[in-house]
Amino acid sequence: MSQEMIFKRFERFWHWSQALLIFALIFTGFEIHGSYSVLSFAIAVKLHTLAAWALIVLWIFAIFWHLTTGEWKHYLPTSKGLFAVVYYYAVGAFKGESHPYKKTTNAKHNPLQRLAYLGFKLAISPVIWISGMLYLFYGDWPAALTETLSLEVVAYIHTAAAFAMMVFIIGHVYMTTLGKTVFSHIKPMITGYEDTEKPDVKK
Amino acid sequence: MKKLTPAKLIQLFVGFLLTSLLIGSLQAAETRSPTTADHSKFKVLQGDFKSAPEVTEACLSCHTEAASQVKKTTHWTWLYDHKETGQQLGKSKVMNSFCGMVVTNEPRCTSCHIGYGWKDMKQPPPEEESAVDCLVCHDTTGGYKKFPVLSGFPTEIPREWPKGSGKMVMPPNLTEIAQHVGASNRETCGSCHFYGGGGDGVKHGDLDSSLAKPNAALDVHMDANGLNFSCSECHSTWGHDVAGSRYQVNAKDTKGLVNPGHGEVKAASCESCHNSDPHPQAKLNQHSEKIACQSCHIPEYARGGVATKMWWDWSTAGRLTEEGKQINQKDEQGRLVYSSQKGDFGYGENVVPTYAWFNGTVEYTQIEDEFDTSNPPLGVNRIQGSAGDPDSRIWPFKVMRGKQPFDTVHNTLLATHVFGADDTSFWKNFDWNKALQDASDKTGFAFSGEYDFVETTMHWPITHMVPSADQALECAACHSADSRLAGLPGIYMPGHDSNEWLDRIGWLAVLMTLIGVVFHRIALIISRKINKA
């Protein structure tokens, strides 16, 4: 057992600022959607746009970081052990069994996490970005686009993706509380360190 | 020495304020280059004018082309050949939902013609050049008044008006007025255009006497202490032809700024001065593609303290007292709400406009046009435009409503002979049969003898009473559940529109996830207790 840096400084900065921006986007987004009126439509649009640009910049840095550090490998999907994790959350946890997956610096996400985060990164997010950009630049659409696509459809897709994002967040936040203690998974995301067991390296 | 009491101080302060305001207004009034001609020094204007046409003759002795210019304009002909619809419109031809038609009511209606003595709408206006009324537009003294029932002439003798009021209208001092002519101003244009429909503010809703000296909150361009624009600042003229039309509105000006040397110097659109992208925010500029400037920048009309007529029901007109006397009922604000001559009235002040797609073309139900009586209200005019039409934008309108007589056999609107001291006019005799029959006899428009009243509407584009920009509508005026544009076809408005099924499924998914998570946690707590035990 040793203390090991699981989540690096940039990773943590990226995660928490992304979380903050996404919460801001959801809050302002559903005001723009007309679900409630708190900030006023004008301010909601301003903040939503600002947060969206900030998140885009953050993503550019994050993508660069993932590619240059090789961290992208943590999101490669694998079926190996996936069932065991699913089984643990569905059944095992209730029987008092322990989590079948042990985090390592080489593989910090369990197979279910890998799949969920990959879905977040490759499905929900791109749909939100693309529909959001189309939404934001509606006034600049070329004629060819105006003839084939309507703001209405773009808005529906953007809204649907926002709902998917909320479902992800609820699930994600809940899962973080399923460690040994409620905060044991959240702690390394803040401090970076977790008590990990090094894989056996035989020399 | 007198004591300086607080009351004195306040007096002094108010006096100071008023003085500075006065100085301010005098300075603000200087919006024109000084004239090169002092008309009071002209010999031809020294004479004692016996009649208004004599003044016109004097004007034309120098301004030799003025009369022929005026006679080519709609101000003179009251005719408008509509290029888009092919209809012949103009004041002499159209019906409106206020007083009906000019024909058979000439001496009253032509008191707002820029000429003298047009007594028969079936004939063109008088031919002689001296019949052009120069003074109604060019008086700067405010002393010139066309008498309401003299076919455009001012009175030459003292006359009581309104009849029975005891108020006397004196003949204007033509010599004094002629020596002080100048460019048109808000009062001269307003002497007719503020009073359309028979009274102050009645017709347009965005034009009434409050615009003679408005503040910036009422109209930032005409603000008497600010820009102090005259009407012609925007309604620019070319050889006496004035820019702007309510039959063919420039609903989407894509030409933008008008600079000398770059095409016509005729400008009655916002864009001709402000261009089509005047906002610092790109998103607002993009709105101007589909939304007229007026829609956001005129939050309400009839804001100057003068009510505009919103409802005019002719069907109730003609009710008299048991003694056969006319009834005139007023509301608490002193507005006429019923008169035997005209029927029931409804008014509006600070009215939120009605919004509609508009490409500028206005079509009329003309008196010869048969219409579908089974589907009221009948649009006396109908605006054209749609969401899919690239020339259309969303415009604000005053929608005038009321009831007017129509022929139940021919299904046409009817000319009404209301004015005149004869034995058929409605306002004298209160008998629709006589009034309608006489109008038909004199005009040749068919009348079967059978009539009823049909509910009608009329759309009046709102374009005046633009307050300073800080009073423009907030986004949420449209982008909200309670949207001003609710029900307008062809648009998806974020904040107002959504797909209820998408929302239902979306929120259900969120809710199910939450419930799932809560159940998972509860099950976990229970199972841990069981496992421990």
Task: Tell me what the structure shows.
Chain A: It is a multi-pass membrane protein. Chain A: Residues 7-192 form the Cytochrome b561 bacterial/Ni-hydrogenase domain. The complex is a heterodimer of chains A (203) and B (533). Chain A has 203 residues and is mostly helical. Chain A has one domain: Fumarate Reductase Cytochrome B subunit (Up-down Bundle). Chain A is built from seven helices and two strands. Chain A has helices spanning 9-32, 41-69, 82-95, 111-136, 143-148, 151-176, 186-191; strands at residues 2-5, 193-196. Chain A has a two-stranded antiparallel sheet with strand order 1-2. Chain B is an alpha+beta fold. Chain B has a domain at 39-182. Chain B contains 14 helices and 17 strands. Chain B has helices at 6-29, 52-62, 66-70, 74-77, 106-109, 135-138, 174-178, 186-193, 271-274, 282-287, 293-297, 426-429, 432-443, 500-532, and strands at residues 80-81, 88-89, 159-160, 168-169, 237-238, 241-242, 308-313, 328-330, 336-339, 343-348, 354-358, 362-364, 378-379, 381-383, 393-407, 412-413, 451-461. In chain B, strands 7, 8, 9, 10, 11, 13, 15, 16 and 17 form a nine-stranded mixed β-sheet that branches. Chain B has a two-stranded antiparallel sheet with strand order 1-2. In chain B, strands 3-4 form a two-stranded antiparallel sheet. In chain B, a hairpin with a 7-residue loop joins strand 3 and strand 4 (168-169). The model of chain B is unreliable at 22-28 (pLDDT under 50). The chains are: A mainly alpha (203), B alpha+beta (533). Chains A and B meet through helix 2, helix 3 and helix 6 of A and helix 10 and helix 14 of B.
